[in-house]
Amino acid sequence: MVDLLAMAGLTALGGALAALVDWGADVLPPARSDAGPVPAAPDAAPGSRGSLRLDRRLAVILVGLLGGAAVGYRFGATVTGLWVLGWGALFLLITVIDFEHRLVLNKVLLAASGVALAASLLGLAVAVPLKGALLGAGAGLALFFFIGLVGRGAMGMGDVKLAGLIGLLSGFPAVFSALLLGVVFGGVAALAAILMGKGRKSTIAYAPWLSLGALVTIVQAAL
Questions:
Q1: For residue range 98-127, what is the model confidence (pLDDT) as tens digits?
Q2: Tens digit of pLDDT for each residue in 129-170?
Q3: Which residue range(s) make up the domain with 124?
């Protein structure tokens, strides 16, 4: 039976985390000297940066609310539910920043890796055992570093370091399925971009799709 109170609470928490994601996507990336001030969203003309920012805020909060509701429905007010929702918010932040800036921020990855490593060190039930986490991180880093070398820039260093975080969270050998999912999602996105006329030489942001693959793996492990 669904605990409606827990579901409502996690829905609200998802919305609050999404608001933090929206704020973080504004303040965490390095400032651009050519960006100029962002117009106030309510007064922004359609298509302006202020209007786009408002669209992003609404989309992010909607994702947070829906994600919180889904987590509350499936996991209830449990440590597992909070674990899944928290990492969902982190990957949403990475996704928004990479879409907008083509950056995967070191400070975000470092903080997230610290949390994942601490959870493994403390032996939390929701976390991967320390040995598996370290092996997963090493495997993810090595695999994507190799892909970056042979692919001549197919993967940026931000994607390589993100693969290490995904390895910490998913462990070994689950890191390979998590990264494979991300690559498949990214391939579908690249194909869609080509079909939409963006051309074969246009680049796509890979971190959002790697994040999606990681989140799917985390949810599967929690079920």
A1: 999 999 999 999 999 999 999 999 999 999
A2: 999 999 999 999 999 999 888 877 667 899 999 999 999 999
A3: 4-222
Provide the 8-state DSSP code for 105. Answer: -
* Full-model pTM: 0.88
Q: Are 71 and 14 in contact (CB under 8 A)?
A: yes
HEC string for 39-103? CCHHHCCCCCHHHHHHHHHHHHHHHHHHHHHHHHHHHCCCHHHHHHHHHHHHHHHHHHHHHHHCC
| CB-CB neighbours of 94 under 10 Å | 27
In the chain, where does DSSP find H-type helix? 4-27, 49-75, 79-101, 106-121, 130-150, 157-170, 174-195, 207-222
Number of structural domains in the chain: 1
